[in-house]
Amino acid sequence: MLKKTVRDLSESELKGKRALVRADFNVPLDDDCSITDDMRIRAALPTLRYLLERGARPVILSHLGRPDGKPVASLSLQPVAHRLQQLLGSTVSFVETTDTDEAMKCSASIGDGEVLLLENTRFLGGEESNDPRLSRSLASLGDVFVNDAFGTAHRAHASTAGVSEFLRPAVAGLLMEREIDYLGRVLATPETPFIAILGGAKISGKIDVIERLLSRVDAMLIGGAMACTFFRAMGLETGKSLVEEDRVDMARQLLGQAGTRIILPHDVLVAPSLDNAGVARVVPRNSIPHEQAMFDIGPATAESYSRAIASGRTVFWNGPMGVFETPAFAKGTGAIAAAMAAATARGTITIVGGGDSAAAVAEAGLVERMSHVSTGGGASLEFLEGKKLPGVEALDDRPAA
Ligand code: ADP
Ligand code: MG
Question: In total, how many domains does the chain have?
Fold first, then answer.
């Protein structure tokens, strides 16, 4: 890690000091504003505990959803404060404002062992425009800045990047460090064999990641609708499957470039439509009926992909193998998750990136059995594309050793 982390802060930089922590509490809520998945809150606990154990007083900032610069009652962080208190076992006070005298007063009066959570940063007009006035004001809420919001690190917002211009030290939290460490391994020197599994709906948006990974992997296993764009590039019939017509040439180029390293499904699960799962059947990839669509990889493919995963020393996965939201088309995705969990147990480094893939792993109850499940969807892809993340760039450099 080229940036300083909380572990680089001295005792005196933490004891009795307000640590302004940017967390990513952008959790899914149901219609009653109940949290349906608290993985992101849990992921922030190590940093908060680290700070509390050293006598620091965490003042936490986060966004939730897309309120577009004005207060939206259903996107309040209040339910997060409640859940955080349960998980952390410390008093978590919540203030219904962020950039006000009241927030300032509360930040100045937190007691030892207590945590303060401020209201949704995206209720503020200057957050997404990275307004320096807001950044300066947020900076006055803390004595040190700790950015632990990996999932938002690809955005240059006031609470992620701007604030570090006015508040030093500015360091990475433990989650941020862990994300960069694991995802960094994929780009640096992964232990080989290095296997990547890519799926999801579209190739577009992932082309840069595919190209970057192709030069590093021993095998790239493709699933999801993405496979159909490759099938089309091979001249196969894809029926009503989701194909990105304007990416077929790109897919053909990638196949030419990759030699035998890109591996496509041999068999697929097809149905006339998503709500016709009852008549779904397995066909070879060269027999997708004209009036049907591919919604999952087939069982033979799931098995051979599982064997490939078992042969790897590093395995990275992004993108479901099928329409896993529909149980009839979730088997391929489930098989990959299970194969990765088994590989982890044998000492393979397994890394999952992408919001839907992470959700699939969570649904299978296998999060704890992966080496790392990234909390950042878009951020993990941008990182793997080799882009600089503004929320990381803004932090203090670690002095050269
Ligand atoms: P991630 O969020 O992990 O990066 P993506 O967003 O790229 O993954 O892709 C997830 C979506 O791809 C899911 O909503 C899933 O239903 C869809 N998908 C996967 N396979 C297919 C398919 N064969 N046909 C249509 N959609 C698919
Ligand atoms: Mg997604």
Answer: 2
In 54-173, which ranges are continuous DSSP H helix?
78-88, 101-108, 132-139
- Mean pLDDT lowest for which of 35-49, 201-215, 334-348? 201-215
Give the pocket of ligand 1 (CB within 6 Å): 199-201, 224-225, 242, 294-295, 318-320, 322-323, 325, 354-357, 377
The enclosing domain of 314 has a CATH number of 3.40.50.1260
Q: ω before 289 within 30° of 0 (cis)?
A: no
Q: Which residues are annotated as catalytic?
A: 40, 202, 355, 378
The answer for residues whose C-beta is within 8 angstroms of residue 219's C-beta and 6 or more apart is 193, 195, 196, 261, 263, 308
Q: What is the pTM of this model?
A: 0.91
Q: What is the pLDDT of residue 187?
A: 87
What torsion do the CA atoms of 281, 285, 286, 288 make, to the nearest 10 degrees?
40
For 89-109, b where at least 16 C-beta lie within 10 A, e where not — what string? eeebbbbeebbeeebbebbee
Provide the b/e sequence for 168-192 (b: ≥16 CB within 10 Å): ebbbbbbbbbbbbebbebbeeebee
Range among 35-39, 271-275, 383-387 with highest mean pLDDT value: 271-275
Same domain for 335 and 243: yes
Identify the sign of the CA torsion 145, 151, 156, 159.
negative
* Ligand nearest the Cα atom of residue 325: 1
Residue 50: both structure tokens together: 């680290």
pLDDT of 401 strictly over 80 = no
- Domain assignment present for residue 389? The answer is no
* Ligand 1 binding pocket mutation candidate from 242, 296, 356, 382 (most atoms within 8 A of CB): 356
Residues 149, 220, single domain; the answer is: no
Least distant ligand from the CA of 197: 1
